[in-house]
Amino acid sequence: MENTILHKADTRGFANHGWLESKHTFSFANYHNPERMHFGVLRVLNDDRVNPGMGFGTHPHDNMEIISIPLEGDLEHKDSMGNTTVIKSGDLQVMSAGTGVFHSEYNKNSDQQVKFLQIWVYPNQRNVTPRYDQITMNVADRKNKFQQIISPNQDDEGVWIHQDAWFNMGNFDKDIATEYKINKPGNGVYVFLLKGEATIEEQKLETRDGFGIWNTDKFTITANTSDTEILLMEVPMSL
Is the pTM for the entire model greater than 0.90? Predict the structure, then answer.
């Protein structure tokens, strides 16, 4: 029997630092909810808005796969591995923190907010050599279907991470139904509805709702509105 969990958008933790507004699906920083610590190895799902010219100063990470998905604006990244880059909507960034890395993230623009998702996944190997990767996806390839953006395999489409996880994004017209099949037995999927409305297994989801499903090998997701945008994060359920 499949298991599910629903996290409505307005139940997320919220932090307003003035220059940063961040909504936390799972416990993070000053938001602590023992019922919302993680979904399998998915540890952090932050929905961030950074004011013009502001950002996160240099800070450390270790033993975490850190994924950034820009939604609007330009985000400037610098790290202790020597990378200085800008990521924008359509791009995908992953950093394997491993034995330790320092980095900063700033809004490159002086006239608009930058909006991005910050996602942390527990790795399946500890103390790996730190690594940075960034690619630009062809967003047209996710029209009315799911486009793979993350996997465990270096030769696959998208970027790879140190975990048996598969992420997909899709943009759907109204009434388009898509079946998703689990890549690895025992994995679950956390669905994050970026825009629009959709239904999974009779559960209706609205913008920024999160929905976890596990103990199943496949499920169908149907867009209820035009221009529905969905992020699927398939992850192992055991840490």
Answer: yes
